[in-house]
Amino acid sequence: MARSRASSSSWWRYLHPSYYLKRPKRLALLFVVFVFASFAFWDRQTLVREHEAEISKLNGELNRLQDQLRKVEDRLENPDEHSVGHDVVDIDPTNNERREKVKEAMIHAWSSYKKYAWGQDELQPQSKSGINSFGGLGATLVDSLDTLYIMGLHDEFQEAREWVADSLDFNKDYEASVFETTIRVVGGLLSAYDLSGDDIFLEKAKDIADRLLPAWDTSSGIPYNRINLAHGRAHNPGWTGGDSILADSGTEQLEFIALSQRTGDPKYQEKVENVIRQLQKTFPSDGLLPIYINPHSGTSSYSTITFGAMGDSFYEYLLKAWIQGNKTEAVKHYRQMWETSMEGLLSLIRKTTPSSFSYICEKNGDSLSDKMDELACFAPGMLALGSSGYGPDKAEKILSLAKELAWTCYNFYQSTPTKLAGENYFFHAGQDMSVGTSWNILRPETVESLVYLWRLTGNKTYQDWGWNIFQAFEKNSRIESGYVGLKDVNTGVKDNMMQSFFLAETLKYLYLLFSPPSVISFDEWVFNTEAHPLRIVPRTGKDEGVGRAASGKLTTKPLVRPFGRKQGKIGA
Ligand code: DMJ
Q1: Is the model's pLDDT at 551 over the cut of 80?
Q2: Ligand 1 mean position to 501 CA, how many Å?
Q3: 443 in ligand 1 pocket by Cβ < 6 Å?
Q4: pLDDT tens digits for 37-90?
Q5: DSSP assignment of 302-346
Q6: Of 394, 382, 519, 396, whose CA–CA distance to 452 is shortest?
Q7: Does residue 180 have an active-site annotation?
Q8: At what angle do helices 187-196 and 154-167 cross, to 10 degrees?
Q9: What pairing do the DSSP bridges indicate for beta strands 349-351 and 367-369?
Q10: Fewer Cβ atoms within 10 A, N terminus or C terminus of the chain?
C-alpha cells in the first residue's frame, strides 16, 4: 500500500511545473513532443478536409463521365435525335420516378391554365379565371414553351406554338415592365426558338424587343424601366423617384445579345452592353451597387445594396454574359466585374448562432442588416457555376460558400410548418432564422441552386432536398384547378395566383434536378434569369460575331440550328 502511494506520488511529480523548471532538458523535450503532436493533429485535420474536397471533386467528375457515357450511348442508338424533348431515361430508378411526378405536376398546371386562362398572362386557380398582369402577352403560355418542349410534351407545345403564331399581339397600349417582358417574353421566345428551330419564335422575339428598345434612349444609356408597347414612350415608375432599378436595368444582356446573334442585327447587343460599360466607369471597389441608378447621369443613388429584390439578377448576368460569350477576351470585363462583386458578397456573409447558418446581409450605407430574401437563394447556384473560373483554392472556397448558403436556403423551407419558405428571413442575435414576410409565391431560387450544386458536385443530397421541396408544394399548393401560393407559410392559407415562373422555372428546375445533366447541359446552354435556356454560340474576337456576314450584310438565318429540325416540327 505504502509502495503504491509512493509510486503514484512519483507519477504526479511529472505533472508539476517545478519538476521541469529544475530539468531544462526535459522541458525542452516536452516542448518538442508537444509541437510534433500538434502538428500531427493539424496535419490530420487538413488531410481529412483535403480528402473531403477531393471526394466531392471526384463525385462531380464521376457524374460528368457517367453523363458523357449516357450521351455517347444515346447518340449511338439515335444518331439523329437529341436528348432534349425525348423520353429521358436515367440509370437511377428513383430519378425516373421523381421526374415523372414533376412532369405530371406540369401537366396539371398547364391543363388548368389552358382550361381557365388560355392566352391570358396568369391563372387565378381559386376563382378559375385569368388575369393580365403583364399587359396581355400570354406570359404563362410563353414562359412555358421551353418547359413543355424539354419535358417532351409535344402536343401541348405545338398547340401553344399555334397560339403564338396566330394570337400573340404586342401592339398593346400598355406600360410594360422592360425587365419582366424581357426575361419572360423575349427569353421564353428565344429559348423556344433555340430548342425547336421554328422561325415564328424569332420573329415574335424581334417584334417585342423592337418595342422595348426605345427604353434605352436615355442620356447615360441606362434604360427606363417602363415603356408603352404601342407608342414607345418610356419612363420610370413614380415610386422610384425617377430612378432606374439595378436589376431591371442590368438583366437584359443575355436576351438581347442572343437576339443580335440570331438575327445578325447588332443593335440589341449594343444597347445592353453599353449599360455594363457605363456601370463599369463608376464601379465601386467592392463591386456592390445600390439598387437605384439615375438614368441621366448613369450613377448610383443612395439606396440599399442587396442580392435580393431589385439587385439580384444584375450580378447573375455579369457571370452569365461571360459564359454566354464563351469566356473570351471580348467578355472578360463581365467576369472581372463579377469577381469584384463576389468579394463584396463575401464581406456581407455572416453566420448565425447557434447553428452556424451562413447568410447574406443587406447593406445600407455603412451598416449591415441581418435580413435575406428567398430571392437571394439564386446566389448558391451562381457561386457554384462561377467557382470553376477561379484557381483551385479560391474555387474551393467559393464552392463551399455556395454549399453553406444552399443549406441555409433549404432550411428556409424546412423551418416552417408547411415546409415552404417565406419571402424573407431575419437573423436575430441568438436565433437561427425567423420568417419576416411570410408568403410563398411558388418561387424557384432554391431549387435552381440545387440543380447547379447537384450537377457540379455530384452529391445526390441536393436531389433529396429538391424532392422534399417538391412534395411540400404538392401538399400545400396543389388544388384541383392548378397551383397557388400561400399567404402565410405558418398557417398554410392559400392565395389565388399561379405565377408564370412556377411553370417556367420551379417545375423546369425540378425536372432537370432529376434528369441526367446532358439534358440542357451547362456546357452548351446558359439559363436566363427566368430559367429559359439560351444556346451558347461562338463569340470570338473583339467585336464578336453578331451575325454579320463577311460582306457586311446582315445574316437573316439564325446562327443556331440545334437539331436540324424542320420549321414548326418538334421531336418525334
Ligand atoms: C423570376 O421572375 C426571376 O427569377 C427573377 O429573376 C426574380 N423573380 C422571379 C422568381 O422568383
Answers
A1: no
A2: 7
A3: yes
A4: 777 777 777 677 677 667 766 766 676 566 556 655 655 555 444 557 666 777
A5: S--B-SSTTTHHHHHHHHHHHHHTTT-GGGHHHHHHHHHHHHHHH
A6: 382
A7: yes
A8: 120
A9: unpaired
A10: N
3-state DSSP assignment of residue 557: coil
Nearest to 253 by CA among 333, 342, 182, 341: 182
For residue 9, the model assigns a pLDDT of 60
Quick one: how many helices (H) and strands (E) in the chain?
Answer: 20, 18
What is the Cα–Cα distance from 330 to 544, expressed in whole angstroms?
Answer: 7
Q: How far apart, in whole angstroms, are the C-alpha atoms of residue 482 and residue 484?
A: 7
Which of the listed residues 377, 445, 500 should we mutate to test ligand 1's pocket, taking the one with most ligand atoms within 8 A of CB?
445
**Contact assessment for residue 441 and residue 484, using Cβ atoms and an 8 Å cutoff:** no
Give the distance from CA 527 to its chain's centroid.
8
C-alpha angle 106-107-109 in degrees, rounded to nearest 5: 60
User: Considering just the CA atoms, what is the radius of gyration of the chain in Å?
Assistant: 27
122 noted as active-site residue:
no
Of 410 and 28, the one with more pLDDT = 410
Nearest in space to 529 (alpha carbons), one of 282, 248, 331: 248
CB of 529 shorter than 6 A to ligand 1? yes
Q: What is the DSSP string of 73-123?
A: HHHHH-TT--STTS----SSHHHHHHHHHHHHHHHHHHHHHHHHHTTSSEE
Q: Tell me the per-residue pLDDT of 111-164, one tens digit each, with 9 for 90 and over.
A: 999 999 999 999 999 999 999 999 999 999 999 999 999 999 999 999 999 999
- φ and ψ at residue 521, rounded to 5 degrees: -70, 145
Q: Measured in angstroms, how far is the CA atom of residue 138 from the centroid of ligand 1?
A: 17
Q: pLDDT tens-digit profile of 162-182?
A: 999 999 999 999 999 999 999
Residue 203 annotated as catalytic: no
Q: What share of the chain is helix, strand, coil (3-state, %, to 5)?
A: 55, 10, 35
Quick: pLDDT tens for 281-334: 999 999 999 999 999 999 999 999 999 999 999 999 999 999 999 999 999 999
The mean pLDDT of 482-496, rounded to a whole number, is 99
Spatial separation of the C-alpha atoms in residues 490 and 395, rounded to whole Å: 38
For residue 292, what is the DSSP state? E
Q: Is 530 in the pocket of ligand 1 (CB under 6 A)?
A: yes
Burial of 211 (0-12, 13-18, 19+ CB in 10 A): buried
pTM of the predicted structure, to 2 decimals: 0.84
Tell me: cis bond preceding 354? Omega within 30 of 0 counts.
yes
The pLDDT of residue 565 is above 50: no
Question: Chain-wide mean pLDDT for the chain?
Answer: 90
| pLDDT of 114 | 98
